[in-house]
From TrEMBL:
The lineage of its organism: Eukaryota, Fungi, Dikarya, Basidiomycota, Agaricomycotina. The keyword Transferase applies. Pathway: Amino-acid biosynthesis; L-arginine biosynthesis; N(2)-acetyl-L-ornithine from L-glutamate: step 1/4; Amino-acid biosynthesis; L-arginine biosynthesis; L-ornithine and N-acetyl-L-glutamate from L-glutamate and N(2)-acetyl-L-ornithine (cyclic): step 1/1. Residues 27-47, 421-445 are annotated as: Disordered. This is Arginine biosynthesis bifunctional protein ArgJ, mitochondrial. Residues 421-436 have a biased composition (Low complexity). It comes from Kwoniella pini CBS 10737.
């Protein structure tokens, strides 16, 4: 049974009687209130540039236009290859959608057969190679095998497991269309020939990921681990069809894609465990529209090329068993970095004008807090209220109330709801809307309106039943989102697919 909260109808009545709508509406000649069509804010400030020394050692990248996208010169094919002397550990979290795309299946097989080792990856945008049957699988294998065959032995280790290490595959774009595989295969030799590690090449690779994205998503990070400087580079893409639920590779049976490459040395099994932990608390906690893609994939590559201040010896491989303290630091740094990358996807949500954090605290378990936060974040009524800048907390309670949590029902008399102003605000005191199930009697409507004008919003929900908490990141639903997705197939065919 669902938790026992008031019904959607009764909650809405309470909200209507205690808190007037704060949306800034206009009225038509017929007297109908409508929200003005606000254009999404510019996302240019989310594009970062980096110096050459910001990127992890031992990786090279390359991108090109292969003719998958119709517009000449638009980057749609790229590769990342480990050039380190040591073998590269690899881990992946991939969609749990039963209609897994061909590249997801191929990448799973490659990781399982190599015991978590890989040369790198190849990615194309403009065509997802999803729901494409046997031909799709053949094409994904061709992309992987062609790339691997052209790599020099110097970019691999000399151990006996070399022959099982391949190039992982990712694809994104329209579903149900075959890749122009001949064009892709023709361009792979050029990609391999032009491999380098310049900041320009890294930025171009991030552009090769893009479909409906409005900006390339590239981030770097470094931290000290003992006497070594460990570096991360991350690229991801996504704007629509975003509600990931990803897990580790399984035996074979518009999209979010991402990669995190690091020059740390990490045992493959422990790298997978660290990525599972990071993804569960980052990419699996974002939602744009509640739709899980067929292609969602996050890769993590660790090549062990990090240099030491005091020694020229290769970095000792991190594992939870042999060096738990250092591994714990690495795992938390990976989680923080994954959170930053995941939030970029939400900020670029199709038509989004708001970036919304749902924080649920006071829960008996993390799982309950997370389920409640996702329930609110996926509510179309809540998301449209955020677009309309309407402080209708009844929609929040409604979504809290239908979260399937049996046998751990929520107590309505323990729930509190607040709006949290951004840290940049002159007044950062939370605006309490509901306290222990009772509506606040004197809500400052003017202040609520000011908070809702902000691009970044945070909703805090206290269940009053424990100490666990979870954060989920979402965006609003706008007129623009409906426009984009009402004709997304036509848009893809006219913009991306070569005819």
């Amino acid at each position: 049974m669902p938790p026992s909260l008031p019904s959607a109808t009764s909650v809405s009545r309470v909200a209507a009687s205690t808190l007037p709508s704060l949306a800034r509406n206009v009225t038509t000649s017929a007297g109908t209130a409508v929200t003005p069509n606000k254009p999404p804010p510019s996302k240019d400030h989310h594009i970062h540039s980096y110096s050459a020394d910001a990127f992890p050692l031992g990786f090279s990248v390359s991108s090109t236009h292969a003719g998958i996208k119709k517009k000449a010169g638009v980057l749609d094919l790229g590769i990342l290859i480990s050039t380190a002397k040591t073998s590269c550990s690899a881990a992946a979290c991939m969609t749990r959608n039963v209609f897994q795309a061909a590249p997801v299946t191929v990448t799973s097989e490659l990781l399982l057969n190599s015991n978590g080792k890989a040369r790198g990856f190849i990615i194309n945008s403009g065509c997802a190679n999803a729901v494409t049957g046997k031909k799709g699988l053949e094409d994904a294998w061709s992309m992987s095998n062609k790339t691997t065959s052209l790599l020099s032995p110097s970019s691999n280790s000399s151990n006996s497991s070399n022959e099982n290490q391949g190039t992982l595959v990712m694809s994104t774009g329209v579903i149900g269309q075959n890749l122009p595989i001949s064009k892709i295969l023709e361009n792979i030799p050029k990609l391999v020939k032009n491999l380098d590690n310049s900041p320009k090449s890294w930025l171009e690779l991030s552009k090769a990921f893009m479909t409906t994205d409005t900006f390339p998503k590239l981030r770097c990070k470094s931290f000290r681990l003992g006497d070594r400087e460990i570096k991360f580079v991350g690229i991801d893409k996504g704007a629509g069809m975003i509600a990931p639920s990803m897990g580790p590779p399984q035996p074979p049976h518009a999209t979010l894609l991402g990669v995190i490459a690091t020059d740390a040395a990490v045992n493959p099994k422990d790298l997978q465990n660290a990525l599972n932990y990071a993804v569960d608390r980052s990419f699996n906690n974002i939602t744009v529209d509640g739709d899980m893609s067929t292609n969602d994939t996050i890769l993590c590559l660790a090549n062990g090329a990090a240099t030491s201040i005091s020694s020229e010896n290769p970095m000792e491989e991190l594992s939870e068993k042999t060096n738990p303290k250092e591994f714990g630091i690495f795992k938390e740094q990976l989680r923080e970095f994954a959170e930053e990358l995941a939030q970029l996807v939400v900020r670029d949500g199709e038509g989004a004008t708001k970036f919304v954090t749902i924080r649920v605290k006071g829960a008996p378990t993390y799982e309950i807090a997370n389920a409640v936060a996702k329930s609110v974040a996926n509510s179309s009524l809540f998301k449209t209220a955020m677009y309309g800048e309407d402080a209708n907390w009844g929609r929040i309670l409604c979504a809290v109330g239908y979260t399937p949590l049996s046998p751990n029902p929520i107590s309505p008399t323990s729930v509190s709801v607040s709006f949290l102003p951004p840290s940049s605000s002159s007044n950062t005191t939370p605006l309490r809307l509901l306290t222990n199930g009772e509506p606040e009697s004197d809500i400052d409507e003017e202040r609520a309106s000011e908070i809702l004008k902000e691009e970044d919003l945070e909703i805090e929900i206290d269940l009053g039943d424990g100490k666990e908490e979870s954060k989920v990141w979402t965006c609003d639903f706008s007129h623009e989102y409906v426009t984009i997705n009402g004709s997304v197939s036509a848009a893809f065919f006219s913009i991306f697919i070569k005819t």
